[in-house]
Design goal:
Blueprint: H1 9-18, H2 31-60, H3 69-78, H4 81-106, H5 112-125, H6 127-141, E1 151-155, H7 162-169, E2 175-178, E3 185-193, E4 196-202, H8 216-228, E5 231-236, H9 246-259, E6 264-269, E7 282-283, H10 292-303
Parallel strand pairs: 1-4, 1-5, 5-6, 6-7
Antiparallel strand pairs: 2-3, 3-4
The chain binds guanosine-5'-diphosphate (GDP) and magnesium ion (MG).
Magnesium ion binds next to helix 7.
């Protein structure tokens, strides 16, 4: 998520104030009229500048009620949704306070200098909120850019061939994104068949071991994945050339089943050039490409009717 930088409150004040410097007037007003008009224009420009600057902040940050569940979980784990709402709400509050001050000024409730001064006080009150949002922005910028597509998630021990399968199923190099607060990355490839697209996601280090050793934040990242996955592709390596015994791999499979109870899990035995597993849903090899087309076809057929794939 790309959000413009958030500055400190004085920046917004100074920017608004600078718009009041050179006020030109057309026509031939009298001295008295002139002074009055200039003050009115200054107040209006100042107000409009502040209002649009604060509005820009509000619109550039995503509405946490409208983003996908996956992003909600990420916001929650990185910065807390409640805090996020509270600080964005404070910006909204300051915007309406300054609007009120402006209307009160127009009704001659205060002088121009008073209006500027009181607006500055309001802005000062949101300085902590602006700081928070600037930090939040840096977190949000690091969120993986997930597309709103049907998604298959890869799981299985390290070295069983998940990244290789991602490479085989998708045409382009996977897009590598980072996860908030973890060193983990998320690799996304798009699989295409005719006009349809499916997103394949590989999360190195996350769905690769039984979860005992995983820290709290990684667990939150895993929970977020639950909202993302439509199906899970669980990859076995029955050749055990990955260094993991089939029994260990089965234990991880059981954990993944517990984690995604309502999701369809396709069981893939990779490296079938070395060993086959007749019990797997698919035997594939990234070395010889055996079984890859069938797997691709099956995943598409799971989401789209045969007709739409013609
Ligand atoms: N013989 C064989 N080796 C494979 C196959 N797929 C992957 N590998 C090898 O297995 C190792 C781990 O693959 P990788 O895709 O990085 O596994 P990941 O850790 O699960 O992402 C690499 O050395 C691959 O070349 C396969 O189908 N057959
Ligand atoms: Mg990998």
């Amino acid at each position: 998520m790309n959000i413009p930088s958030v500055a400190d409150y004085m920046f917004y004040f100074d920017t608004a104030y600078s718009t009041t410097k050179k006020v030109m007037l057309g026509g031939h007003p009298t001295y008295g009229e002139r002074k009055k008009l200039i003050t009115l224009i200054k107040a209006k420009r100042f107000y409009e500048s502040i209002y649009s600057q604060l509005s820009a902040i509000i619109t550039h940050f995503p509405d946490s009620d409208k983003v996908s569940k996956f992003y909600q979980e990420l916001i929650e784990s990185a910065i807390s949704i409640d805090d996020y709402k509270k600080h964005l709400g404070a910006i909204n509050w300051s915007r309406s306070m300054i609007k009120k001050l402006y209307y009160s000024y127009k009704k001659k409730g205060m002088t121009l200098q008073n209006f500027f001064g009181r607006s500055k006080d309001v802005l000062k009150q949101i300085s902590r909120d602006l700081e928070f949002l600037q930090k939040a922005r840096l977190h949000l910028a690091k969120f993986p850019s997930i597309k709103n597509l049907k998604t298959a998630l890869l799981a299985g021990f390290p070295n069983v061939g998940k990244s290789s399968i991602l490479g085989q199923l998708t045409d382009s190099k996977p897009e590598v994104n980072s996860y908030p607060f973890t060193t983990k990355t998320i690799n996304i490839g798009i699989m295409k068949m005719n006009n349809q697209k499916i997103q394949i996601v590989d999360t190195p280090g996350l769905l690769e071991r039984p979860f005992e050793k995983i820290n709290k934040i990684e667990m939150k990242a895993i929970i977020a994945l639950k909202h993302l996955a439509d199906i899970v592709l669980f990859v076995f390596d029955s050749s055990e050339s990955s260094g993991y015994k089939i029994e260990e791999q089965k234990r991880l499979f059981e954990k993944i089943k517990e984690l995604f109870p309502e999701k369809i899990i396709m069981i893939i035995n990779n490296k079938c050039d070395l060993t086959r597993d007749p019990k797997a849903d698919f035997n594939v090899s990234c070395k010889t490409s055996e079984g890859i087309e069938e797997l691709k076809d099956k995943i598409f057929r799971h989401f789209y009717s045969a007709l739409s794939l013609k």
